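writing this on my phone so excuse typos. first protein, seq and then structure
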Amino acid sequence: QVLLVESGGGSVQAGGSLRLSCVGSGYTNSGTCMGWFRQAPGKEREGVASLYNPGGTSYYADSVKGRFTISQDNAKNTVYLQMDSLKPEDTAMYYCAADGAGYGYSWLLKVCRELRPNFRYWGQGTQVTVSS
């Protein structure tokens, strides 16, 4: 059973930074996509960043490019989202997501690259609030 647990959310002023962590279990990092999504009240869930393995290629939404960085520590089965230069519009519940190549590597890469919310496994979310 895949389990994802996020942490690191909180309240910060605009221009500040936060680092989210997602500890996973029940899967191996080979042939996986790890993603971060967010959902603000009244809005659809949107992809923020993702990381495709093998290779560790990362993908970002245009709205966070240059400000957010996704990374991983395979030894700890942990994926991070470093968020810098935060803006009030970054306020949302942030979710970690994961999936493997059960539907094939082509589909997995497509989901990962396009930040589609078609992941099978999700964490419970961590709230990020940015005040102006």
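second protein below, same order as before
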Amino acid sequence: QLQASGGGLVQPGASLRLSCVASGSITSDMNWYRQAPGKQREWVARITRLGSTYYAGSVKGRFTISRDNAKNTVYLQMNSLKPEDTAVYFCNQATYWGQGTQVTVSS
């Protein structure tokens, strides 16, 4: 199981940190996805088993994915948030998905 948390309502330019706690080990690649209302789910970021990171162009330079294997937790630090970042954010490991956490960016 994957449990995501940390979402909320923030103003443009603010920061949030999402967490995803796994019930088991997270030694495989971990991803964050997001889904805005009326849109398809889109990939946001990946951290590989060895710690390499990759980002969608829309968030590169603003978001940072990291992992703490000892805590079975993956994080998504989101800075300089924009209204277009509003979505439900999901963590993913292989075929497993968390329940999502809502991020709303609005003034």
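The radius of gyration is 13 Å. thats all i got for now
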